[in-house]
Structure formats: C-alpha cells, structure tokens
Amino acid sequence: MAKGVNKVFLLGNVGKDPEIRSTAGGMTVASFSLATADRAKDAQGNWADKTEWHNIVCFQRTAEVVRDYVKKGTQLFIEGKIQTRSWDDKNSGEKKYRSEILCNELTLLGGKPGGEGAGGYSKPGSANFDQRTPASQSDYSDVGITDDDIPF
After folding, report:
1. Pair (94, 137) in one structural domain
2. Range of the domain at 23
3. pLDDT by residue (tens digit) across 31-62?
4. Which tens digits make up the pLDDT trace of 111-124?
C-alpha cells in the first residue's frame, strides 16, 4: 500500500484555557480546543459563519509553550496530524471515539494586550498604527463590534 498523507493546518482561536498535565514519565501534555470559522451564504443568501471546534494535543516543549503563553482567545496557527482514539466507557461499556489534532508545530499569532507583538516579541519601532485610540481601548465600539460578537 502506498504511503498516505496526514497533515493538518489550522488557524483559529483557543476556546478556553488549556489543560496542562504530566504523564507518569514526566512528559508535559497540553490539551485545548481551537475554533476555526468559515463563512458561507445560507439558503436566503445571507452570509453565515460556521464555527468548527478542534481538539488539540501538544507534547513536551510545545506543551510548555502552551502552558506559558496560551490562554482563552489566543490566536494560533497549528500544524499537525489527525488521530482518532477509542476506548470503552466505564459506565455504559459503550465504545467512545475522539478525534484530535496532534500538534507538531505551533505559532503564536496576534498581539498581547498592551500592544506587544506575537509571543511577547515586538519589533523595534512598531507601535499602535491607529493613533486615534490607544491599544488599551481597542474595543471596536466605533464600528459596532462588541464582545458578544466574539465566539469565545
């Protein structure tokens, strides 16, 4: 049988703070959900957003980066592969399945509050380009976007 390809690229936002744990052997593992959005027209011709949730699992150094820098709302670019696990439910004996993205590479995107760049790095000379409002007031109230419009 020919070799297959199992590669995933995701760009999205973390849905809730990551869960960090360690294996019996001392390996750090981070698990979190990542939301990606797609926009399409519905039957009436109106644009509608559809959010897809992905279960992400990171190991070792990548999990440590997640532990130290990632929280709910963080925008990430993930490269990894899909894996489906199965187990028997302890209560019902029913077979359960969970598809996950095993993260090989993770890139922190977006900035931190206060105008810092991605991952805490800020280019020298880079500043808030919109001089009308300081970075701490980036609530977009002047364009009608509120916290209720954000899916996380």
Report:
1. no
2. 1-36+47-109
3. 999 999 999 888 899 998 999 999 999 999 99
4. 654 444 444 332 23
- Cα–Cα distance for residue pair 14/16, rounded to 1 Å: 6
Is 0.70 surpassed by the pTM of this model?
A: no
CA dist 38 and 31 (Å) reads: 23
Q: How far apart are CA 147 and CA 51, in angstroms?
A: 16
CA distances (Å), 75 to each of 8, 36, 65, 69, 112, in order? 16, 10, 14, 11, 10
Cα 17 to Cα 70: distance, rounded to the nearest angstrom: 7
**Calpha distance 74→82 (Å, rounded):** 21
CA dihedral 151, 37, 103, 152 (to 10 degrees): 0
Domain total of the chain:
2
